[in-house]
Design goal:
Shape: elongated
Order of helices and strands: EEHEHEHEHEHEHEHEHEHEHEHEE
Radius of gyration: 23 Å
Mean pLDDT: 88
Helix content: 40-55%
Number of helices: 11
Strand content: 15-25%
Bound molecules: beta-D-glucopyranose, calcium ion
Largest sheet: 6 strands, parallel
Low-confidence stretches: 1-46
Structural class: alpha/beta
Number of strands: 14
Length: about 375
């Protein structure tokens, strides 16, 4: 167990404090006493249900170097901290990209007594070990952001998923790009009536990668934009990898590239970095579109470096996960949640341009 991965937030008389995890006996003993006391009250004839007022919750995520995930986890830990009841003690683990590491981390979280697991799979096609471990202890799992395939979600009735609809983000990115191209004829720099474009794609096999690309491109075509694809490169959601890919693409296609569609903001920013590094004159720089609305992404929209982005609603996703966690711990009120097929919650995306970026950007200077 890598101690540096442990983050724990406990409420101490209303104040939020960070502490090292005291996995523990004292916490479990306190929970035990509370439950015993509640049972005693019931036995005396008062019809009070014995609800847990405290719970350990484990969060396992695929990689701490992911910009969007870090912001989503921050939101989640704020939302869980804000719950009045049950009071949550949170443990967060980073799998550094390895499913095997994550399997071990989940086992440790279960051994520590977690009552709910929130899991962002390292390998979204390989959740079976985690599902088996959780089912043995009857601990529900909320998967998030990296969606297991439907078959795996059917393995047990205590599996949930919170995320967003990749298709919607692709359509919105395509619409944003079509609007920009229609309203600014200078984007078609060589005036051939077609837009020469490249794509920077996320991890192969991720539900958001191929689908975003496909729907963005098809939406552009449906909007009557003639396209010519020059290149497509996988950059695994990473700004640094996107910069390298973009440098290669620029050296192959010089100043022919007019549009860059990136599956996320970090890769769009990596592409912008490449142009800056080469000191390309502004008139030869293409337009860039991202997805996520991370802090850096929104700032780039506000600075008019990124033409637009699509907001991946991390606050909404975190709030849905916190609500679901509370209901799973207390085993009450699950019926109040609108779950698709009894398992899924999808939050809507939003379009962000420099016209409305202030609504999303938290820093006052951009309002
Ligand atoms: C986000 C990416 C992120 C990926 C990680 C996607 O939904 O748009 O920025 O890297 O999830 O799984
Ligand atoms: Ca052109």
């Amino acid at each position: 167990m890598n101690g540096r991965n442990i983050i724990c937030r406990r409420k101490i008389t209303g104040a939020h404090k960070c502490c090292r995890l005291l996995l523990g006996r004292s916490v479990r003993a306190a929970v035990g006493l509370a439950v015993a006391a509640a049972l005693f009250v019931c036995a005396c004839g008062k019809k009070q249900p014995a609800l847990p007022d405290k719970a350990l919750v484990g969060v396992a995520y695929y990689n701490k170097s992911d910009t969007f995930l870090n912001q989503l986890i921050d939101c989640l830990s704020e939302q869980l901290d804000a719950l009045d009841s049950p009071e949550i003690t949170l443990t967060i683990r980073d799998a550094a990209g390895s499913q095997r590491t994550q399997d071990d981390q989940v086992k440790e979280l279960l051994d520590a007594g977690c009552k709910v697991l929130c899991v962002n799979l390292a390998d979204r096609a390989d959740p079976s070990e985690i599902i088996d471990l959780a089912r043995e202890r009857q601990v529900p799992i909320i998967f998030f952001n990296r969606e297991p395939v439907a078959e795996d979600m059917m393995q047990w009735d205590q599996l949930y998923y919170v995320g967003a609809d990749a298709e919607q983000s692709g359509v919105m990115q395509g619409e944003l790009a079509a609007d920009a191209i229609r309203s600014d004829s200078s984007i078609d720099r060589n005036k051939d009536g077609k837009i020469q474009y490249v794509v920077l794609e996320g991890e192969a096999g991720h539900q958001d990668a191929i689908i975003r690309t496909e729907y963005a491109v098809n939406t552009l075509k449906d909007n009557g934009i003639a396209l010519e694809r020059l290149s497509c490169g996988i950059a695994n959601w990473s700004r640094a990898q996107a910069q390298n890919r973009m440098l290669q693409m620029i050296s192959q296609h010089q100043n022919q590239i007019e549009l860059v569609l990136a599956n996320n903001d970090d890769m769009a920013l990596g592409a912008i970095d490449a142009y800056k590094k080469l000191n390309v004159t502004e008139s030869a720089v293409p337009v860039f579109f991202g997805i996520d609305g991370t802090d850096v992404g929104l700032k780039a929209v506000a600075d008019q470096q990124l033409a637009a982005t699509v907001y991946n609603d991390k606050e909404g996703q975190a709030a849905a996960m916190a609500k679901l966690t509370a209901k799973l711990v207390t085993k009450k009120g699950l019926g109040d949640l609108e779950l698709e097929n009894g398992k899924y919650i999808y939050l809507s995306y939003f379009k962000v341009t420099d016209n409305n970026v202030g609504m999303f950007y938290k820093d006052d200077s951009y309002h």
